[in-house]
Amino acid sequence: MSKNGTNNDKTVHKVGSQVIVDMLIEQGVETMFGYLGGVVLPLFDKLYDAPINFIIPRHEQGGCHMADAYARASGKVGVVVATSGPGATNLTTGIATAMMDSVPLVAITGQVRTSLIGNDAFQEADTTGITRPITKHNMIIKDPNDLAQSIREAFYIAKSGRPGPVLIDIPVDMQLAQCPIPPKGEIDLPGIKNRAHGHARQITMAAQAINESQKPVLYVGGGVIISGASDQLRALAQKANIPVTTTLMGLGAYDQSRPESLDMLGMHGSAYANYAVQHADLLISVGARFEDRVTGNLQTFAPHAKIVHIDLDPSSIGKNVKVDIPVVGDAKQVLTALLNEVEYKPRKEWFETIAAWKAKHPFMYDKNADVIKPQYVIEEICRQTQGQAIICTGVGQHQMWSAQFYKYSRPRQLITSGGLGTMGFGLPAAIGAQLACPDKPVIDIDGDSSFNMTLTELSTAVMYKLPIKVALINNGYMGMVRQWQELFYGKRYSKSSLVNPDFANLARAFGCVGITVDKKEQVAGAVKDMLAETRPCVVDFRVDREENVWPMVPAGKSLHEMDGLDIFEMA
Amino acid sequence: MKHILSALVMNKPGVLAHVAGMFAARAFNIDSLAVGRTDDPNISRMTIVVVGDDKVVEQVRKQLLKIVEVVKVQDFVGQDCVARDLMLVSVACTAEKRPEILALIEMFNAKVVDIGPKFVMVEVAGPESKVEAFIDSCRPYGVKNVVRTGTVAMARYNRAAKTEE
């Protein structure tokens, strides 16, 4: 099976490790991440003087999240390298994270030499077997003739269609063998089927539905950001006059300062977005997948709405809800086509209803509290950065507050693990994002428990002099777990509180700036100092320990059955 | 409802694991799975029998198509197609029962492929129902061993199959 190999005299042959580096450069890789180990030493030897900015994390998981966030922030393919066995298994959380959020990532793992595969050799693991369900595609190179073309294919697959992670497992003897480099040509993979345009008749049907509807809502996911369709989305929403709500992954796809923005929907979404969906007569979903955290009880989701579903991945359509008008296609191309066929409608009544919901149920918290409210910290960060920073998060309460209280205006501004919900994502993500966007402020709004999982990467930030900021929403709990225990397990806080280190001191030990904030009056000043800092900086905000994220649609309830809306009215 | 899916896949290592793994990961049930090369050595065909409602099978078809090595998937439901199973069955057969059993074999258009003092090995091919019926008919004599391929199927001539472009 060496269909790519040629024995043509003119074909260049090089040692495999050099071929890998050559292919990475050919693919335009400028920055990559990875950790060393026995069976990738040939590759690292060729990376020694390669023109690639190579970042060494402190753990492969961190490296994988960095490559992932680098991809999310830049729109390029992220690249991570790890050795065989434990190196590869440490990547798995990062690969699964990228898979769930459709991030283009190429993971290169070393493998024991081909003659040892299957022998339980030192640091051997069945990497392709382990990663098969969490990659878009993976492959193991067993023929030197396949190496160069496989790397090209890996990049092509990672970014084509609905993007995703691709893993290439490269045994050490392949890195040491002489490998041909066939001329670069078109990639021909019959299994890749991209139907980017969208069916014209389906688009016309969608446009008619929009033109006929009185109460439409655009429900937008991360697909719009991946597709680069924000401009087309804005044009459509304004031309057809439709309010826009986004998923967590869709935040940034639509400027939240615009009046037709309904902010985020779903379990911790805005009341007005959830009400709008439940009252809508037409729901136009673009690049979203009707996940359970968005829909609540599926039986009662958007009960009055006809559903248009635009998605590049046919398997997303009709998976969770019955779709009236499916459109398989790339968001940008489909929205562009739709734009020609939609008409403006005033929809005065609809917008008035929405405005009333907005006025009655904004995102709220107790602004008069004496303690530091976590929402206040995030609002203050948003205010002082004029909503322009790149925000990374871990997973939990702080993530939801970052979605609710930071207002995003452009795509690729929020970098968060939405699908897999990977705690510990925030810090390495901030490092990856800062490398992709060296001139923009990058802030990891993190929880203490999430931060604890990967904080060793502070060392990486110091080593590469990256001015990332960590704003720690420290409540001494696994906050979201505690919230569920409070609400659904009778306040039995089983194993959900932690003994934390003194984070500011720890940060200083790493060589970062460390600040502790335990008084409300200090918050604004600390945020200012943090933003002015040129070194990596950790600010430990000791927030109200038992604050909850509101509103909340309890699991299994309908989207309009939100708890927590009346909390402030009663206060 | 039973659906027969026919998938063209790249003949590469790991493809079967990928397909089987996808079924397990997404909690789809495979009734049978048969794999073999086509006339093109680079392409294999998988015939997969899945039980599920239309929504489930539609998801199966779409998820199969997402696998990079899967080139094409057809669902034969509602199509005029030829579907066949192949079975080898070893039936207890003493000398005095032999005429009876041979008559049965003939009735089913089956073939004796091996014979011993106390058994016959029979090759039966046909639609699943025929293969099942043959086992049932042999049970009174004693069925010692059964080996079956999964279903393989092909659309009949001039009946346009519902294909995924």
Structure description:
The complex is a heterodimer of chains A (571) and B (165). Chain A is of the alpha/beta class and 571 residues long. Helix content of chain A is 37%, strand content 16%. Chain A contains 23 helices and 20 strands. In chain A, strands 3-2-4-5-7-6 form a 6-stranded parallel beta sheet, sandwiched between helices. The mean pLDDT of chain A is 96. Chain B is of the alpha+beta class and 165 residues long. Chain B is elongated. Chain B folds into 2 domains: 74 residues, ACT domain (Alpha-Beta Plaits); 71 residues, Alpha-Beta Plaits (2-Layer Sandwich), CATH 3.30.70.1150.
Keywords:
heterodimer; A: 571 residues; Rossmann fold; 3 domains; six-stranded parallel sheet; 23 helices; 37% helix; B: 165 residues; Alpha-Beta Plaits; five-stranded antiparallel sheet; four-stranded antiparallel sheet; 9 strands
Gist of the model:
The complex is a heterodimer of chains A (571) and B (165). Chain A is an alpha/beta fold and 571 residues long.
In CATH, what is the homologous superfamily of the largest domain in chain A?
Thiamin diphosphate (ThDP)-binding fold, Pyr/PP domains
Briefly note the CATH topology name of the largest domain in chain B.
Alpha-Beta Plaits
Identify the strand order in the major beta sheet of chain A: 3-2-4-5-7-6
Shape of chain A: globular
Order of helices and strands of chain B: EHEEHEEHEEHEE
Structural class category of chain A: alpha/beta
Supply the number of structural domains of chain B.
Answer: 2
**Largest beta-sheet details of chain B:** 5 strands, antiparallel
Report the portion of residues of chain B in β strands.
35-45%
Write the layout of secondary structure elements.
The complex is a heterodimer of chains A (about 575) and B (about 160).
Chain A: E1 12-15, H1 16-26, E2 31-34, H2 41-47, E3 53-55, H3 60-74, E4 78-82, H4 86-100, E5 105-111, H5 127-131, E6 137-140, H6 147-159, E7 165-171, H7 172-176, E8 178-181, H8 200-212, E9 216-220, H9 222-227, H10 230-240, E10 244-246, E11 261-264, H11 271-279, E12 282-286, H12 292-295, E13 306-311, E14 325-328, H13 331-339, H14 348-360, H15 374-384, E15 390-393, H16 397-405, E16 414-415, H17 426-436, E17 442-447, H18 448-454, H19 458-463, E18 469-474, H20 479-488, H21 503-510, E19 513-517, H22 523-532, E20 537-542, H23 567-570
Parallel strand pairs in A: 2-3, 2-4, 4-5, 5-7, 6-7, 9-10, 9-12, 10-11, 12-13, 13-14, 15-16, 15-17, 17-18, 18-20, 19-20
Antiparallel strand pairs in A: 1-8
Chain B: E1 2-10, H1 15-25, E2 30-37, E3 43-51, H2 54-66, E4 70-75, E5 81-92, H3 98-107, E6 111-115, E7 119-126, H4 128-138, E8 143-148, E9 152-155
